[in-house]
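One-letter codes give the sequence; the fold follows as tokens. Both lines appear below.
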Amino acid sequence: MHAWPASEVPALPGKGRDLQIHDTATQGTITLAPGPVARIYVCGITPYDATHIGHAATYNAFDLVQRVWLDTKRQVHYVQNVTDVDDPLLERALRDGHDWTELAERETALFREDMTALRMLPPQHYIGAVEAIPGIVPLVERLRDAGAAYELDGDTYFSVESDANFGQVSNLDAEAMRLLSAERGGDPDRPGKKNPLDPMLWMAARPGEPSWDGGSLGRGRPGWHIECVAIALDHLGMGFDIQGGGSDLAFPHHEMGASHAQVLTGEFPMAKAYVHAGMVALNGEKMSKSKGNLVFVSALRRAGVDPAAIRLALLSHHYRDDWEWTDAVLAEAVARLERWRAAVSRPDGLPADGVVEEVREALSNDLDAPAALAAVDRWVDAQNASDGDDESAPGLVSRTVDALLGVAL
């Protein structure tokens, strides 16, 4: 599966700062200082409705991570999956009378278009669950043969008790885990499971549903968590720098994936930092497919909204905060974009070296995009209120906003 084209990232004078980021597992801020190549895995979409503002906010956060690392003169090895076979996708295809593969391909193509328009840097490896199946099956067999998995009516489950570190990603108690498991795709009440929290690794073939050769597992399809584990281990290995996604993935998805990987490799932890973006609401409720209260990036673009304004609207909120999308949020972003473009369109201006360093400092501090916007706002306000004679300043501000915030002025 191919990703989307990369926009050029301008080089800035000097060098950026190492990233300090909030780690869900330790519940504190840690400093990441990767080697020459920083490694990041971000969980991708299930392509039956793409791309809403909640998606965009999440991928914007991890795009900022890439930009901070690139500014430190590191390379970035970024991997993202597409869950192109799963219950929600199959259910939507059945409901709407579509072929599930065509639905997945169409929505994935739309996601690529939206990411391109928003100037999100693409992953080096963009892998669908279906194409990962040949690598998933041996991992499930290894877990089973090691006694970390068991069969139940033809399905194969992972035993969470096989991982001594289970629970150290989300830091939730058993009751909270059980409630979230039921809410987020698990089956804690299924009779016969050794532990209600045990997640499915391989689902035996069901009538009328797609299935693949699972070797000794029989025909079926993979569970949700093992999909990301297989892709991450194949392309990044253990101990990569960031495992990222929305805050609703901390449990069960990232918790279970970490346990799968840790049992498979005998190493801990799977990722140095577990980083989670907040949820976006509309009309007082979390924006979600189940509620049908989605604002789509493609719909905004069709309505003539500049993708740069959409990106500025996302950047106006800290990535870890839960926030609400409103007309006012978008209007403020449109107005900010106009002010910024007017300021950098002048032939000269006030010195801007300080702006570069302020934006760098803000983003290195747990991706504080609102503080970065405020730094640019201060320069823009001063630029529009007075005359300057630095011919390089407007271009430097424009390159800074492009390189570090992903906004083309």
